[in-house]
Design goal:
210 residues, four-stranded mixed β-sheet, 7 strands, alpha/beta
Length: 210
């Protein structure tokens, strides 16, 4: 039975051009999920942007701990319910938190308005709703963190002065921007409705490849 990863809920919930069914973005995501379920998960295409996020995830969590006077630890372990599955970055008794490492000063949302727009554009608000549903927490925090880019990730046109030296000159507290997402049960009901549609669509797709 198809279950949607929290990271894919934003795609699932994207609005179709007309009607209330599945968008083309959602259909594309479901097609990939169907093929993966039959033939195994694909190797994800890794870019320097995603590599930075993976390489500095622990550092980003430590940075948030320094600013908030806590000692957060990376959470490990995927959980699921009847509809979705997910694995958040770190969790406490009162909330769930995720880190997003920005590639550069140019891509970091220094202003709250921009951070909130980016969260919605990337579907992180829906991802957060999934996490809160799975882990039974009332609030989810998305932390954008700007850290110096590892030198080995810099390409020919990437300036060490901009990616490392400039970043280090900016106070750490100014290099973290947080967006708060509150739990909304009505949105969870909307997710259930879309997953039900996705399962019907996935069943039809399997008939073509099995």
């Amino acid at each position: 039975m198809l279950k949607i990863r929290c990271s894919s809920i934003g795609a699932l919930m994207s609005k179709p051009k007309s009607g209330s069914g599945l968008s083309e973005t959602a259909k594309s995501m479901i097609k990939t999920a169907v093929i993966e379920s039959i033939y195994g998960r694909f190797t994800e295409v890794e870019t320097k942007y995603t590599r930075k996020g993976k390489m500095l995830e622990d550092e980003a969590i430590k940075a948030i701990g320094l600013i908030t006077a806590r000692m957060p630890k990376k959470h490990i372990g995927r959980i699921e319910n009847d509809w979705i599955s997910g694995e958040c970055d770190f969790i406490s008794k009162s909330c769930i938190e995720d880190t997003k490492c920005s590639w550069s000063v140019d891509t970091f949302p220094f202003f709250q308005e921009d951070a909130e727009k980016e969260v919605k554009k990337a579907g992180y608000d829906w991802q957060g709703q999934g996490y809160m549903w799975l882990y039974d927490r009332p609030v989810h925090y998305v932390h954008y963190v700007l850290l110096p880019t590892p030198f080995e990730l810099l390409g020919f046109n990437d300036s060490a002065e901009l990616h490392i030296e400039l970043v280090e000159k900016i106070p750490l507290k100014k290099r973290i921007k947080t967006v708060v997402i509150e739990r909304n049960e009505s949105l969870h009901e909307q997710i259930i409705e879309k997953v039900a549609l996705a399962r019907v669509y996935a069943a039809d797709l399997r008939g073509e490849v099995c």
